[in-house]
Design a protein that fits this description.
Strand 6 and strand 7 form a beta hairpin. Helix 3 crosses helix 5. The protein folds into three domains: 45 residues, no CATH class; 113 residues, Orthogonal Bundle (DNA polymerase, domain 1), CATH 1.10.150; 168 residues, Intergrase catalytic core (hpI Integrase, Chain A), CATH 1.10.443.10. It has a three-stranded antiparallel sheet with strand order 1-2-3, covered by helices on one side. Strands 6-7-8 form a three-stranded antiparallel sheet. The chain is mainly alpha-helical and 365 residues long.
């Protein structure tokens, strides 16, 4: 169970508990090593090494974690956490088959997961074999997000008394030095995209560009959320859905007002009266808007445009370039903190100098 041994002049403590091996340098004193051994044995007996009496298989925790999310969070949140746990499963299957129980998920193992995700090569054919068509593993920011997901799962394990200490608190996030450049459309590209847009999809993508809404916000938008009199789009919670960062209002521009009124007139002829864009009730894939966007972008000759979120970036980017202050952009975008909005700050090089000039100090010299 536990022992001490000497290498040169240094004494070490060596113990194993529930599949976890711990080696610790004690010092040059044999007496201190013997005391450390006794202390370790007492702690093992008292079960104070961060393990719960109710140790659980990692796979069982994953299932409980996903079920918890299905009950308490949006489907998109559960989907995101499932992706994280799928990566964790693959890491264990391919690299650490010896890891089965939750008590074996040590900081060292998590460090191995970080290396696995950063260094793996993903083949388009689905095999983890490096080829000329392979791309490198996940970006640092992606790995950090996954680590937060694992941390959340392990915090629940503590809450459920399967774990006493979260090994994630001893794991540092990766340094983010591989950020992808922000992609947004220029005004000329916006025009090309809309010109290539089919008539039945025009109002959808025009609304995206004119409001910066998230995809889920647009999909859950009701006609009752459109205040034509005060010219506002109201992002509001629904019985079966709620906004990511709370409710907010987005002003309607003159052009968008015209597009929405025309779209409402056409929708009334089809009998669709609740959802503004009836995407949820269409029965189509949840990736429909992304798939159509890729087709339109290709027809318009636009490169590197594969995400609907690009239109949200476009809205924010053009606001900043037009001189709108960042706090206002934050409010319109529904960002929970200004740090998120700061990714657009470089588009307004004058915003820092303008801020300094607000001091208006007078010099006597």
């Amino acid at each position: 169970m536990a022992r001490i041994y000497q290498r040169g002049k240094i004494w070490y403590l060596d113990l194993a508990y529930k599949g976890r091996r711990v080696r610790k340098k004690v010092g040059t004193s044999k007496r201190m090593a013997e005391l450390a051994l006794k202390d370790a044995e007492v702690k093992i007996i008292k079960d104070e090494f961060g393990f719960s009496k109710n140790d659980l298989a990692i796979e069982s925790l994953i299932q409980k974690f996903l079920e918890y999310n299905r009950t308490n969070h949006r489907a998109s949140t559960t989907k995101r956490y499932k992706a994280v746990t799928d990566h964790l499963r693959r890491f264990i299957t391919e690299k650490r088959k010896d890891i089965v129980m939750l008590s074996q998920l040590t900081p060292e193992v998590i460090e191995g997961y970080k290396t696995f995700r950063r260094d793996e090569w993903v083949n388009p054919n689905g095999k983890n074999v490096r080829t000329d068509n392979s791309r490198k593993g996940a970006r640092s920011r992606t790995v950090n997000i996954e680590l937060e997901g694992i941390k959340t799962m392990l915090n629940l394990a503590i809450k459920w008394d399967y774990l006493r200490d979260n090994p994630m608190k001893h794991v540092k996030p990766l340094k983010v030095d591989d950020k992808k450049l922000l992609r947004f459309l220029t005004k000329e590209e916006c025009e090309r995209f809309l010109e290539a847009c089919p008539k039945e999809l025009y109002s959808i993508y025009f609304t995206f560009m004119s409001t910066g809404m998230r995809k889920a916000e647009l999909e859950n938008l009701l006609w009752a959320d459109i205040d034509f009199r005060n010219r506002n789009v109201l992002i509001r919670r629904k019985p079966d859905w709620q906004p990511k960062t709370g409710e907010r209002e987005i002003p309607i521009s003159d052009e968008l007002l015209t597009v929405l009124k025309q779209h409402k007139l056409e929708s009334s002829k089809t009998g669709k009266k609740d959802y503004v864009f009836a995407i949820i009730d269409s029965g189509k894939s949840h990736n429909m808007l992304r798939n159509e966007l890729i087709k339109i972008a290709k027809a318009a000759g636009l490169e590197d445009m594969t995400k609907v979120h690009t239109l949200r970036h476009t809205f924010a980017s053009h606001l900043v370039m037009a001189g709108v202050d960042l706090p206002t952009v934050q409010k319109l975008m529904g960002h929970s903190d200004i740090e998120t909005t700061m990714i657009y700050s470089h588009l307004s090089p004058s915003h820092l100098s303008n801020a300094v000039n607000q001091l208006q100090l007078k010099s006597n010299k």
